[in-house]
Amino acid sequence: MTGLFGPRQALVLGAALAFFLGLFVLLPLAMVVLSSVAQTWSMTPVPSAYTWRWFDAIRGADLDALTTSLVLALSAGAVATSLGTYAAYVIQRRRIPLPGVFDLLMMCPVALPSVVIGLALLLAFHRPPLALTESPAAVFLAHLVIVLPFAFRTVSAVLHEIDPRLEEAAVGLGASDAVAFFRVVLPLALPGVASGFILSFCLSMGELGATLMVYPPGFSTVTLAIYQLATRGFYYQGAALAVVLLVVAFAALLLLSWMATRTRRAARRLA
Amino acid sequence: MVVVAVAGTRPARPRDAARAWTRRWGLALPIAGFLAVFVVYPIALLGAESLAGPRGLTFDAYRTLATTAYYQAALATSLLIATVTSALSTGFGVLFALALTWGRLAGRRLVEQLLTLMVVVPSFLVAFALIFVYGTSGLVNLGAMLLFGLAQPPLDFLYSWKGVVMADMIVFTPFVLQAVLAVLRLIDPALIEMSQSLGAGTGVTVRRVVLPLAASGIFAGSSVAFLLALNEIGVVLFLGSTSVVTLPVVVYSEAFVNQSLQMSAAAAVVASVMSLALFAVYRRALRSVLS
User: Fold this and answer.
1) Measured between beta carbons, which residues in chain A are less than 8 angstroms from residue B46?
2) Is there a smaller number of Cβ atoms within 10 Å at the N or the C end of chain B?
3) Do residues A92 and A156 make contact, with C-beta atoms less than 8 angstroms apart?
């Protein structure tokens, strides 16, 4: 790009950006990481001694919470991605009735506060035939409803880029609709499906509002555990769990970008 | 369009039409079923619960919401936080989008990757992290007390609506930034060169050429920030839900602290109506940001 800004203006803008990132993002995150390994820390700029004991303390209930979160995020992510992909495909490509209405309803949970979604599910499923609120199924359902729009949107955006004529060609050559979908459309949409899954996974790992509304007694997730530790004033231990949560989310994103690079390379080799 | 070509070669019979209709609805059925049972029905129940009196319909819950100072204040706080957050996020987002596009910054890729990472950081975690830096016994306060021999922590804003705005602003600025970056990429550099060669300075070029061309992205980003800040709960809970009461906090505390599902549902209906109305207006803008 040509210069819109002179060197001085560029410097000021760069400095503003650096300040924002430094003071509001990097410094707070660094403090969480430092706190998670601090033995004692008061009245000194950095901790006076370091320890792993806050991470060692992640066992028992907290470890269960972590496992629960992972299982929940993987399953909610998988179901949301499958359902989202199916919905994106039939709404865009298969001329189902009222595509606009379906698209709107698929997206509308994005606009609602997570506590409202939690409350609505609580009211709907707290008595038979579907008495889910005494079981973790309620939390799964809440996460599914919340992450589904994101999976749906991500896959929709990728489907838009895929030439419909490829699928038509497959059908014209005698493939059934299902074969055309699984052998032509799905492989081409796979990068979008993967990023939909990772996004859903990360959002589910970090979900708090709806979880708080529907979780059954004796059930915990990482976010609930961090919340409870923070409200009881156990900041170091909360920081250790927060670091674990961040590492899981960042690892998932790294995996995604690694896959994206590989796909791009493979595409270049083909071309 | 082979199928259409085949269908066109012979007159369509009513049975074919009926079969096509059944197939189209059949494909829609799984989504329709899911949405009906898990989205539409639960949300409709909110309305039913809020209106259910001991003897038929009652508007008592809404009357209480409208006339009690506590609930009025909650609505006002929600709107205040959403408005200020949206304004700040938009300001920073636009500034940083300009900087990243034309600032010739070193480490620009790194900054962009950092901002992508921020999208998966849960909002409450930002609030939690801010406590370590700007909280009562956080880095800044302790440092200032040590350096200047103060008896009281000098910074005392984090556990108020200002702290919530700070955390929300940090969480939602990347959304605005992405929306604005996307539209800035589409601007033809020749337009900017032309503006400059005609004698316009940087300020005039930004105001008269760049910002009007970026208006759709700025609108999309700021509306998303407003809507999401309006709905946010994690940040508020971490920074002290006792002092900052927003509409989502009312939904939560009426259900679990005051044990009144009816009041909770009524507050949820008010919040939903507001959010869904904004969603209807912002829908196209939202599409471009949330994917």
Assistant:
1) 116, 119-120, 123
2) N
3) yes
Query: At A78, phi and psi to the nearest 5?
Result: -65, -45
Q: How far does Cα A150 stand from its chain's mean position? A: 8
Interface residue A22 vs chain B (CB under 8 A): no
SS3 B249: helix
pTM equals 0.89
- Report the C-alpha gap between B156 and B150 in whole angstroms: 14
CA distance B99 to chain A (A): 6
ipTM of the prediction: 0.88
Q: A15: which 2 tokens?
A: 């400095």
A112 contacts B275 by C-beta, under 8 angstroms:
yes
Summary count for chain A: helices (H), strands (E): 13, 2
Q: CA triplet A113, B276, A118: central angle to 5 degrees?
A: 30
pLDDT of residue B289: 62
CB contact under 8 Å between A202 and B104, yes or no, is no
Question: Residue B111 and residue B101: Cα distance in Å, rounded?
Answer: 12
Give the pLDDT of residue A21.
87
Q: What residues have CB less than 8 Å from B96, skipping those under 6 apart?
A: A13, A16, A17, A20, B173, B177
Q: Do B233 and A110 touch (CB under 8 A)?
A: no
**Which DSSP string do the residues of A10-59 spell out, in sequence order?**
HHHHHHHHHHHIIIIIIHHHHHHHHHHTEEE-SSSSS-SEE-SHHHHT--
CA B99, CA B102: separation in Å to the nearest integer? 6
Rounded average pLDDT per 10-residue block, chain A, 271 residues: 73 86 89 82 68 74 88 96 96 87 92 95 82 84 96 93 90 89 92 92 94 91 93 87 91 86 81 70
Range 55-74 of A in CB contact (< 8 A) with B: none
Cis check for the bond before A187: say yes or no (omega within 30 of 0).
Answer: no
Chain B residues lying within 8 Å of A252, measured CB to CB: 120
| CA distance to partner chain A, nearest, from residue B110 (Å) | 11
Beta-carbon pairs below 8 A across chains A and B:
264
How close, in Å, is residue A111 to chain B by CA atoms?
6
